[in-house]
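Hi all, posting the design record for the shared folder.

TITLE: backbone redesign
STEP: 1 of 1
STRUCTURE INPUT:
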């Protein structure tokens, strides 16, 4: 059930030139119970005093089941954005109002599909970072495969890219493809792909008997990939979506 609480910024770093990783703790000292894939809402006021809110996926890598003390989010810079200004300028020690967790963009215990196709652009990769401990457990059961297609314009925008690469190295059932649409890496890797994630999808030959798909991030990518997966024969319940649209 959603709870209202205050968050204090305890740490931050730039993940990419226009993306800030923020680490919060609840002011009341309580841990946050969330299911990986869920998001929080940040509540604030416009300059004219009108209340508003924005959603941010929890990026914290916990153990996949226990509440977490550190609440991490990644915030992408949006030109002229109200929450961008608040979260981009928030100093360590700064306090904001929040509520959550919300959402059902989560791995589900009842899923029996042998292959998970995870697609993301930009900060849309954060739910998958939070899911890594669950993915590890899923792979340990055997007979499962997880493929993450992550779209970015260039290598500097592959958020948490090295974490996903390392996870792929240590978990043979997990494949990570950085899909670079504008500029290849300075030192290309065998797992790299060029173009948009929805284009790279065809290489994986999605099929209803094997796959369940998760799509997160830019609404245009989510729509294009959804259509491509439907054309491949995936029924809609096997395609889960989270569109990062402004919730004003
Ligand atoms: C479920 C959910 C989870 C989300 N998780 C994240 C997350 O983890 N990280 C994250 O950074 N964002 C996330 N978002 C998006 C986030 O909630 C805000 O919409 C985003 O940060 C912009 O808010 P803002 O107040 O800065 O801009 P606004 O003041 O809302 O918008 C300013 C202007 O920019 C336009 N605009 C808004 N968003 C974009 C965009 N993405 N690209 C281009 N133009 C835009 C608006 O139409 C408007 O003209 C999520 C959204 C949803 C619905």
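Okay, here is what came back for every position:
SEQUENCE:
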């Amino acid at each position: 059930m959603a709870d209202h609480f205050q968050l204090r910024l305890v740490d931050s770093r730039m993940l990419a030139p226009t993306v800030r990783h923020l680490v919060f703790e609840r002011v009341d000292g309580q841990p946050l119970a969330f299911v990986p894939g869920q998001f929080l809402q940040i509540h604030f006021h416009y300059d004219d005093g009108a209340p508003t809110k924005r959603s941010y996926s929890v990026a914290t890598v916990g153990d996949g089941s226990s509440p977490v003390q550190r609440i991490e989010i990644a915030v992408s810079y949006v030109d002229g954005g109200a929450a961008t200004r608040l979260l981009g300028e928030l100093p360590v020690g700064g306090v904001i109002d929040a509520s959550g967790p919300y959402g059902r963009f989560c791995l589900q215990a009842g899923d029996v599909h042998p292959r998970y196709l995870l697609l993301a652009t930009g900060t849309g990769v954060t739910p998958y970072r939070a899911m890594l401990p669950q993915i590890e457990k899923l792979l340990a059961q055997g007979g499962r495969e997880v493929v993450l297609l992550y779209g970015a314009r260039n290598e500097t925008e592959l958020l948490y890219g090295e974490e996903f690469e390392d996870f792929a190295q240590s978990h043979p059932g997990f494949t990570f493809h950085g899909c670079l649409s504008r500029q290849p890496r300075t030192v290309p890797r065998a797992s790299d792909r060029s173009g948009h994630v929805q284009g790279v999808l065809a290489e994986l030959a999605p099929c209803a008997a094997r796959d369940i798909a998760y799509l997160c991030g830019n609404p245009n990518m989510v729509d294009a990939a959804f259509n491509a997966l439907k054309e491949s024969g995936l029924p809609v319940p096997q395609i889960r979506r989270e569109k990062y649209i402004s919730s004003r």
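COMMENT: The helical segments are 82-89, 126-140, 161-170, 197-200, 219-231.
Let me know if anyone wants the other runs.
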